[in-house]
Amino acid sequence: MCAVTHEDVLAAAARIGGHVLRTPVIEIADGLWLKLELLQHSGSFKVRGAFNRMLSAGELPESGVIAASGGNHGLAVAFAARALGARAEIFVPEVTSPVKVAGLAALGAHITQTGAIYAEAAEAAAKRAAESGALMVHAYDQPEVVAGQGTTGLELMEQTGGVDTVLAAVGGGGFAAGITVGTSAGAGIGGASGAAIGAASGGADGAASGGAEGRGDGGGPRIVAVEPERIPTLHAARRAGEPVPVEVSGVAADALGASRIGGLAFEILSGDRVESVLVTDEAIVGARRTLWERHRVVAEHSGAAAYAALLSGVYTPAPGERVAVVVCGSNTDPATLVTD
């Protein structure tokens, strides 16, 4: 049995409902939605998991909470800690953007910038948590965090009436894993669109199975897990059969810069509902620019990664397929939209 269930996500939604925003969706073409999670408190989905972890813990220790982050998770933890009256200590690597470091300072967090990549900052944070007794809020590999992120999927299915496919970015994998669980338990929409997907992938037999998935018999929509080619944590793990370390580089390294997929995420994202795809840095940069030029959405590079898979053709929907793309982060300097 998976360590995170659909019931856990429902419980998280009830627990954090008064603390997070119900972010909007916009239909940008027939059957194609953007879920604007970048409009969430602190500029990303991460605040959902942060609140669920802290509220699940009961009374927080006097030493507060501690987290390691490329930036967005730290901002979320700092935001949630301030809302709950707790001290927040955040460790970030040297690649973290100045915009995110400034945001942490504005939220009153105690900041330590150390290590070249996220994994090194995480090691320092774990050591500090052991010394101080602060509550560790992991960026992606805790059940409460994954369940909190999964509330994005619950909202998305309610707001769209259900979709066949969800595209979501992957770093450590907690977000895509949460969405996978949150959209499970018969969350499909039914009818011709599910059959169309099945037919595109497997003829008459595929059409039958696709239609079943659409009715919810298949457990929910397909999840397309999108990663930069230069940080393929899930892709490499699925190939190896277990989480393995990867090199970290590229335009989205500050947010998708985990060097290994989380154990919980790997368990969830190894299922048949999940398709793993890779996108180039050039595609991410182009998608980010397109989000701005066509839709006036200011996303960071990680926030545009899922959309890059669609625009670049790495993932091509079948005729009639209902697709949602999660735009997951906005902590960026808008000036770079015209300089990238």
Model description:
With 340 residues, this protein is an alpha/beta fold. Helix content is 46%, strand content 14%. The chain is built from 13 helices and 10 strands. The protein has helices at 6-16, 46-56, 72-84, 98-106, 118-132, 143-160, 174-182, 192-215, 233-240, 253-256, 263-269, 281-295, 301-311; strands spanning 25-29, 32-36, 65-68, 88-92, 110-113, 135-136, 165-169, 222-228, 274-279, 323-327. It has a 6-stranded mixed β-sheet with strand order 1-2-10-7-8-9, sandwiched between helices. The protein has a 4-stranded parallel β-sheet with strand order 5-4-3-6, with helices on both faces. The protein is globular and about 55 Å long. The relative contact order is 0.16.
Features:
single chain, 13 helices, alpha/beta, 340 residues, 4-stranded parallel beta sheet
Topology of this protein?
Elements (H helix, E strand, L loop, with lengths): L5 H11 L8 E5 L2 E5 L9 H11 L8 E4 L3 H13 L3 E5 L5 H9 L3 E4 L4 H15 L2 E2 L6 H18 L4 E5 L4 H9 L9 H24 L6 E7 L4 H8 L12 H4 L6 H7 L4 E6 L1 H15 L5 H11 L11 E5 L13
Parallel strand pairs: 2-10, 3-4, 3-6, 4-5, 7-8, 7-10, 8-9
Antiparallel strand pairs: 1-2
Number of β-strand runs: 10
Strand content: 5-15%
Structural class by helix and strand composition: alpha/beta
Secondary-structure element series: HEEHEHEHEHEHEHHEHHHEHHE
Spatial strand order of the main sheet: 1-2-10-7-8-9
Quaternary status of these chains? Answer: single chain
| Termini gap | 45 Å
**What is the makeup of the main sheet?**
6 strands, mixed
| Overall form | globular
Radius of gyration, taken over Cα atoms and rounded to an integer in Å: 19 Å
